[in-house]
Amino acid sequence: MKNHDSADDAGMPVALTIAGSDSGGGAGIQADLKTFSALGVFGTSAITCITAQNPKTISGILAVDAEMVVSQIKAVCDGFPLAAAKTGMLYSAHIIRSVAAADVRQGIPIMVVDPVMVSESGVRLLKADAIDALCEELLPQARVVTPNLHEAEILCGHAITSLDELRAAAEEIGNRFDIACVAKGGHLPGDDVVDILFDEGEEYIFKAPRVAAAESHGAGCTFSAAITAYLARGDLLHDAVAKAKDYVREALLNSRQAGRHKPLNFFWNAPVTAE
């Protein structure tokens, strides 16, 4: 497997997002690329689906031909020294299998899998028959998977109702697929949001006060993209997770009005250029 993060490589680290396009700009490919840029990583993309959506609803999904998804991945890998990649909305078993095969052929050094399954508005973003493909073909190749509580329940096959059960789920998922797992606790009740990283037999707990954000659309995509960016920059996984959690928290705290919505502020640490 190639190592593109060497001293011989000049310039910015390069990361790839393999995900769906969000026409509303707050999640998916758009959120990933904004996050990469905010964190000093050059972002590239392979689009798996085109969606018609805004922060409140998804009104249409059109899958990209799986062979075209693979062509995008190959073109990026041929043109750039890729340091890390992440997946988001993959939608179908055919796309998942094609991405998994492309990962092997292209020798992507680090893969972060955000197992996007259902939107916040309840629209299914992963076909039911695609879950087996995700578990059998893509997850075993990944460095880390980042399920929220509901996604962790699907991967485990049982309910998760407490922090202790979330901790057990992170270990169960990590051991089952022989990868690291960040089980996100944002859907558990409480004043704090607690995320659990299980990695090679070690558990790491990340805790922060819950942000009373008007909207959190795209927060999961942004979190996994930030982990990918920090890994591309050479951080250890537990440091990447800690920094990603801080980045998303600040993006929520510093959100600004955009029309009728108040999306994450991906560039919260950049100078304000317009009022």
Explain what you see:
The protein has a single domain, classed as 3-Layer(aba) Sandwich (UDP-N-acetylmuramoyl-L-alanine:D-glutamate ligase), CATH 3.40.1190.20. With about 280 residues, the chain is of the alpha/beta class. A nine-stranded mixed β-sheet has the order 3-2-1-4-5-6-7-8-9, with helices on both faces. The protein contains eight helices and nine strands. The termini are far apart. Mean pLDDT is about 90; it is low at about 1-10. Helix 1 packs across helix 7, helix 2 packs parallel to helix 3 (about 95-105) and helix 3 packs parallel to helix 4. About 35% of the residues lie in helices and about 20% in strands. The radius of gyration is 17 Å and the shape is globular.
- Secondary structural class: alpha/beta
Per CATH, the class reads Alpha Beta
- Determine the mean pLDDT: 92
The name of the CATH architecture is 3-Layer(aba) Sandwich
Q: Encode the helix/strand succession as letters.
A: EHEEHEHEHEHHEEEHH
So how many helices? 8
Question: Helical content, roughly?
Answer: 25-40%
CATH superfamily: Ribokinase
CATH fold-level topology: UDP-N-acetylmuramoyl-L-alanine:D-glutamate ligase
Major β-sheet annotation: 9 strands, mixed
Number of domains: 1
For this structure, the quaternary state is single chain
- For the biggest β-sheet, the strand order reads 3-2-1-4-5-6-7-8-9
Binned strand content: 15-25%
Distance between the termini: 47 Å
The coarse silhouette is globular
Uncertain spans:
1-9
Based on CA atoms alone, the radius of gyration comes out at 17 Å
Q: How many strands appear in the DSSP assignment?
A: 9
